[in-house]
Amino acid sequence: MCGIVGYIGERNALPVLINGLKRLEYRGYDSAGVAVLGENLQIRKCKGKVTDLEKHLDKSLQSGTVGIGHTRWATHGEPNDVNAHPHESHHGKFVIIHNGIIENYSRLRDRLIERDVKFKSETDTEVLANLIEFIYEKSEVGAELAVRLALSKVIGAYGLVVMCKDEPDKLIAARKGSPLVIGVGNEEYFLASDATPIVEYTKSVIYLNDGDVAIIRKEQLILKTLKNDEQGPTVQQLNIDIGEIDKGGYEHFMLKEIFEQPKSINDTFRGRVRSEESEIHLGGLYNVLPKLIEAERIIIIGCGTSWHAGLVGEYLFEDLARISVEVEYASEFRYRNPIINHDDVVIAISQSGETADTLAAIRLAKERGAMVLGICNVVGSSIPRETDAGVYTHAGPEIGVASTKAFTCQVTVLAMMAIMISRKKGLITDERYRDIIREFTEIPGKIEKILRHNHDIKKVAELFQNATNSLYLGRGYLFPVALEGALKLKEISYIHAEGYPAAEMKHGPIALIDTKMPVVVVATKDSSYEKIVSNIQEVKARNGVVIAVVTEGDTVIKNMADHVFEIPQVDNIFAALLSVVPLQLFSYYIAVMRGCNVDQPRNLAKSVTVE
Ligand code: F6R
Predict the structure, then answer these.
(1) pLDDT (tens digit per residue) in 206-220
(2) Are 368 and 240 in contact (CB under 8 A)?
(3) How many CB atoms lie within 10 A of CB 604?
(4) Same domain, yes or no, for 169 and 308?
(5) How far apart are CA 164 and CA 143, in angstroms?
(6) Same domain for 168 and 308?
(7) pTM recorded for the entire structure
(8) Among 249, 429, 433, 565, which residue carries the largest CB count within 10 Å?
(9) Which of 442, 467, 485 is the last residue of a domain?
(10) 605 inside domain
């Protein structure tokens, strides 16, 4: 959480910082701030969003060519002007921005207070600023050494950038646990939590690794470890385009990303699913295939929407590849004492590749000897770098806080893996394989068809915009879709929504049913169809209001339900990919009608880099 940016070079730093913060606002939007070094060092910060910060900016900030900026998701200390970053040290020598958590901040703070150091905020970051300054003044070392010594005393996670008033020609950046990317320009450098603020200036980037410290002057970057060992930075080329991180004419990123799904699924297929006659090719798994095929058990870990994709994966792997699967919340898995065998394969799913609990669960699984694979969207993020092998989703940048295209691309990758293993194990006939691949490649076109009906979905959304509660039901492959539909609604519209396996309804939630609460039933034609028809009847018998996602041409449910969203006929194994789309649109339209901030829902942040 929190977004950080920095610039050093010949340009006016302020616009670079403000544009960058706007791009990173999805990571947190409680407060924002900048510090710019021109003739003197100036800090502006306030509670609220980057647009609120802009009201505090004046001409005096225009001349600086070195600067840092921050958009916050509060952990220590409420969101207010004082707790906003950047934080200045007690004697004003250092200014710092930080993403992460300093776990031993309280002890460090007490020890600094004993030595007469004064604090203004409640944040862990100010402790770091003061610790650096304390070491700098007491030991009479340069800024770089003071930063490295201070960081060696810190327990916790950080991506940070430090400015020192006495050494105005440099920025010092460091990473442990929270991401930091440096864009390499011509006698200029750009720093950010991810590559999106950088791509409009340069495509050459350096991803910092845990333990790296970068000392950056406009003409030179030196990369070291905390212990002062110099290392050659690896410069990589970004393959994202500026157009991918703009709204592209859509009102919100979320809507754009919903509509991008046919393309992002095609991108995820590209080069991997070629034709009905050729095998699925997942280059990232090539070296681990024998172990994956032989796996006795797969453990899938993830959080939120990625966990829901994992549940679809459970059905896919068990159905097609006949491998037993457990799907675990990363946050639970890491704190249990899980039994992990050497021949288990762990698959970690994450859009951002930075989710703290998922990373910690990966480390635990690796410690216990499991092979860990990653399914990630953000190239170069921490999870792909810590896993043994993996597959990127190629959904493109997902900026709306509510995950949409990442989910369908994660399910696409899981389906490719399950089909590939099934084929390699000889569990699938040539004919069935050809049918599956043909169906698979038709998915983007079928999603386009659903998207063309967005206005019908909007009309139904209008009727339910004032609901306070809702229930989402599904069975089999569609149970995770019910969970995902409910999550989408609650996180962006703040309407309470519960997802349930349809058959479980009568063990409790049926008591909620009344004439006002919408019951959304994902009920496309599959092997559980007859059963879910009975569940719909149970709701209707209690005067419930049913919105059903059905297969085109289904007249049975159409006659029972109050409203239907139709999706094209599809093989059971791909039903999640289509049926989730109307639910994404339904939530989106309701949230917009309720005046909610769809792309930046309250209290949330896109990548959860704290436990
Ligand atoms: C919901 C949502 C979150 C994320 C979760 C995991 O719309 O976006 O539930 O799915 O925070 O994030 P990643 O996939 O980045 O690990």
Answers:
(1) 999 999 999 999 999
(2) no
(3) 18
(4) no
(5) 7
(6) no
(7) 0.85
(8) 565
(9) 442
(10) no
Shared domain check, 392 and 349: yes
Closest CA to ligand 1's atom 11: 304
> Which protein residues are within 6 Å of ligand 1, measured from CB?
303-306, 350-352, 355, 358, 402-403, 487, 491, 607-608
Candidate of 327, 333, 352 to mutate for ligand 1, largest count of ligand atoms within 8 Å of Cβ: 352
Q: Whose CA is nearest to atom 5 of ligand 1?
A: 304
Atom of ligand 1 nearest to the CA of 407: 10
Q: pLDDT digits over 488-535, tens only?
A: 999 999 999 999 999 998 898 888 999 989 999 999 998 889 999 999
Residues 155 and 278 in one domain: no
Distance 351 CA to ligand 1 centre (A): 7
Domain total in the chain:
3
CATH number of the domain within which 77 lies:
3.60.20.10
How far does residue 5's CA lie from ligand 1's centre (Å)? 23
Same domain flag for 432 and 483: no
What is the residue-wise DSSP string for 319-337?
III--EEEEEEHHHHTTS-
Q: Whose CA is nearest to atom 9 of ligand 1?
A: 304
C-alpha 45/C-alpha 86 separation (Å) is 7
Top mutation candidate among 258, 305, 358, 377 for ligand 1, by most atoms within 8 Å of CB: 305
Q: Which atom of ligand 1 is nearest to the CA of 355?
A: 16
Among candidates 181, 591, 207, 200, which has minimal Cα distance to 404? Answer: 591
Q: Is the pLDDT of residue 79 over 90?
A: no
- The atom of ligand 1 lying closest to the CA of 404 is 7
Best residue among 329, 333, 351 to mutate for probing ligand 1's pocket (most ligand atoms within 8 Å of CB) is: 351
User: What distance in Å separates the CA atoms of residue 439 and residue 567, rounded to the nearest whole number?
Assistant: 14
Does residue 581 belong to any structural domain of this protein?
Answer: yes
User: How many residues make up the chain in this entry?
Assistant: 611
Any domain includes 350: yes
Amino acid at 287: N
Same domain, 498 and 564: yes
Percent with pLDDT over 90 in the chain: 81
CATH of the domain at 382: 3.40.50.10490
User: 381-390: string of b/e by CB count within 10 Å (b at 16+)?
Assistant: bbbbebbbbb
Show which of 201, 225, 244 is a domain's final residue: 244
562 lies in the same domain as 464:
yes
Rounded CA-CA distance 529/524 in Å is 7
Whether 312 and 382 share a structural domain: yes
Identify the band that residue 28 occupies on the pLDDT scale cut at 50, 70 and 90: confident
The string of pLDDT tens digits covering residues 538-560 is 999 999 999 999 999 999 999 99
Which residues are marked as active site?
Answer: 2, 606
Domain span at residue 326?
A: 247-442
